[in-house]
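To: structure subgroup
Subject: Chain for Friday's discussion

All,

I'm putting the inputs and outputs inline so they're searchable in the archive.
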Amino acid sequence: MPKANRLLPSFVRHLPPAQGRTLRRNLLFVSITLSMIGLLSLMSDAFAAGGAYVVDDAGINAPGECNVDVWYQDARHSPNSSSVVSPACTFKELPTVQLGAAIQRNRADGQGETQLSPQFKAQLFSREDLGLQLALAGSTHFAFDRAHSFDGADLNLPITWQPFEALRLNLNTGWTHAYDDGEQNHRWTWGTGVEYDLARSLTLIAERYGQRGGEQAWQAGPRLHIGERIDVDLIVGRSLIGERDQWLTTGATLRF
C-alpha cells in the first residue's frame, strides 16, 4: 500500500473511490484556506462581504480598500465542483464605485472550464440614519476553454435595509443574458437575503434566489468572524428545480 494511503484515516480508505476523492479535495481546500487565513491575518483587516452568496448587498469597500473572496463549492451527489477567487477594490479617485473580477474554475462530467468575470458595483444611495443603501452592480463572463468566449452578462439592483444593528435585509432585482448550450437566453432575476448577527463572532445568513423560467435555489449557513481580520463561510445550498441538486461551500473573505 502506498505510504500516502497508509496515512489516511481508515474510514476514508474504505469509502467508494468517488466519495474518497471528493473528501480528499474538501480536506485539501480546508487546509489551504486555513493556511491562507493564518498568513493573511498577519497583514490585513477583513469584514463581512458577499463571498459565495448569490444575493448581493448594496455596500461597497471604503475608498482605498480592497477585499478578496475565495471559495470552493462541491456538489453532494455528483462529481461537479467549482473554485473561485474574486478580488475587488474601491479607489480613492472613484469613491462610489467598486471594481473587481472573479476567476472561476468549474468541473462537470469530467470536463473543466475556466471563466473570467469583470465586475463593478456603484453605490447610488446611502442614508445611515434610515439604514438604507441602494447600488447598481454588473458583470460580464468570458470562458477560456471554448471557441465562443463571451458567455453572458448580468445587471443587478441590490437594496440593503438595516432596521436595527444586528439585522440586515437584502433585496435584489435584475437581468441576465446567458448562452446555454449555444442558445441565447434573457431572464429577469431576483433574490432575497437576511443576515443576523447572533454574536460578535457569528453571523447567520440565508437567501432565496432565482430567475424567471430558470434557476431557483436557496443557500444558508454561518459566517464566522475570526478576530476583525477574516471571515469564514460554511454554506449548504439546494436547487428547487429539476433533480434538486445539493451542494456544500467553504469560503473565506479578507480585506486590506
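Points worth raising on Friday:
The chain has three helices and twelve strands.
Residues 3-255 form a domain with the Porin fold (CATH 2.40.160.40).

D.
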